[in-house]
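Example S7 (structure tokens).
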């Protein structure tokens, strides 16, 4: 609709949130398992703080503009492509213990998630993970560079998030 009406708006399209890993605290610490079936293709995970920062920067830019700004779309992504092997390597390193991947089986994932989340959410997450496993969600170098220019720094990395989170869990 925004595009059809040629509205002068900023559209923010975030990738998979790194903060989803907060829900992995118990399995990571007590079972040494990473349970999100993100697959092997790769995802350019975004830190939710970067989403907030992008929104604030764009709101201010539009507010301060002397005239209406053209429509902008930002793919909000992280600086690297993370897959199952990489994420368990990161968590193993920052937690100082060997972490194992629960695997890509989506039925088991939906069942597990359904014990703590509404059925519709477990189903939706299963569909999302299926898409990541099949196609990945990989940002281009240009998308990452554009965000770095917007923020005045590189987007936050999965490793940065894991280091901060592991410290907070202690």
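Recovered sequence:
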């Amino acid at each position: 609709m925004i595009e059809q009406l040629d509205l002068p708006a900023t559209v923010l399209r975030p990738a998979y949130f790194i903060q989803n890993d907060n829900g992995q605290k118990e399995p990571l610490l007590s079972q040494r398992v990473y349970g999100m079936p993100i697959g092997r293709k790769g995802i350019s995970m975004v830190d939710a703080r970067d989403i907030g920062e992008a929104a604030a920067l764009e709101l201010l830019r539009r507010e301060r503009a002397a005239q209406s700004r053209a429509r902008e779309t930002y793919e909000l992504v992280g600086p690297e492509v993370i897959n199952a092997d990489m994420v368990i390597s990161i968590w193993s390193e920052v937690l100082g213990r060997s972490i194992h991947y629960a695997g890509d089986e989506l039925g088991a994932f939906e069942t597990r998630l359904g014990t703590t989340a509404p059925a519709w959410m477990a189903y939706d997450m299963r569909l999302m993970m299926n898409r990541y496993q099949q196609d990945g969600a990989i940002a281009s170098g240009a998308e990452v560079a554009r965000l770095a220019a917007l923020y005045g720094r590189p987007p936050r990395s999965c490793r940065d998030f894991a280091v901060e989170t592991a410290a907070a869990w202690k």
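Notes on this example. The longest helix spans residues 48-64.
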